[in-house]
Amino acid sequence: MAIECNVAHGMPDNTFWENFNKLWKNSADRSPFKSPHILRYFAGLVPGRLTVVQLRVDQELRGAILLKEDGRTLTFLSDLKTDVNFFVLDRRCTAVEEKQFFDFFFSTIKQNRWSVVLNNQPSWAHYMPALLEAGRTSGLFWANFPYSVCPVLEAESPQALFERVQKGHKFKYYANRLAKMSGVAFEVFEDDTDLEIWTEAYCSAHIKRWKGTSTPSDFLDATRRTFLFNCLKAWNQDGVLVRFSIHAPEGRVAFVIGLLEARSLVFHATTFDPAYGKYSPGKALIHFIASWMVGKNLSILDFGDGNEPYKYEVADREHVLSRIFVSGKNQLRFIAKTRFIRYVKDHPKMYHLYQNKLKPWASRAAAAFHVPEILEMFVL
Predict the structure, then answer these.
(1) Which pLDDT belongs to residue 279?
(2) Where do the domains of the chain lie, and which CATH numbers do they carry?
(3) Is 375 a residue whose pLDDT tops 90?
């Protein structure tokens, strides 16, 4: 058995993507955020800033990490749109193969004097003990701390999950209330039906929902609307996209972008037209989704990254997401930023100031003055 690890730069060729497709389909986690078409789309956005670390066993691709240059730092390519960043590893990988892969990854960081941020690392991933051990023994600067959570509702069966959602009578109440209204219907799309029209309606509702607030919708920018459409198209090609909506006489007024993962439906993004806010369309959609999940044999409703209060009206546990910082021990600027971020995260009042004042200010300043270092300093 020949184990080989290597690193390549730039856009991979068609052969790589064919092999990666097989790898993802046979991966232990099969995360929709690492599906082949979405990563290939992302890679096309940053072809000159792309680095791929690979594990091959007897010349077969058994593991891959796709990274992008982000200022002076490397981050996951999938950070362009993700809730969770799994490493893509074949389920057949042995402990020896995983160790060699992670050891090679960290030795490559040291050799190239990279600084790396591994965002949204799932603490529950099967490979996490091997990754942490390789990082701790690498001789590099290493910081790993909890950064966010994914609220989750998990049941022993799809029917049990639906019954638990029904116990919150308001979900059923709001669903029935909307269902009885003339011209109102719940929709689910598992293919590309109306994909472009649906996406435009989603963006329009999102713009209305956040108009006049301190956080106006990103979809005011046409490039962000195009980006979302291309993401949905890529996920649809990989067979992991499910779209839910409520159609009223005036058009679609509530939306959920769902992603399939093993026994889970990831509740990735949602919005609604504020004109329908009094009908709680989000709660109605949760009831509809839980009912749909029964027929699909899905028993985990994963609300994705973030601890928004509405998620805990359903979720009964949290999955912890970690943030890992790695660099050479002489990269003092990176180490200082890491310690600043950890300090801010450990102090809630400071974190609130950071999230609501410093980050928005840094983003605006970087865009206005074309100084990416400002954004890098505060948004790393």
Answers:
(1) 94
(2) 3-149+321-346 (3.40.630.30), 156-298 (3.40.630.30)
(3) no
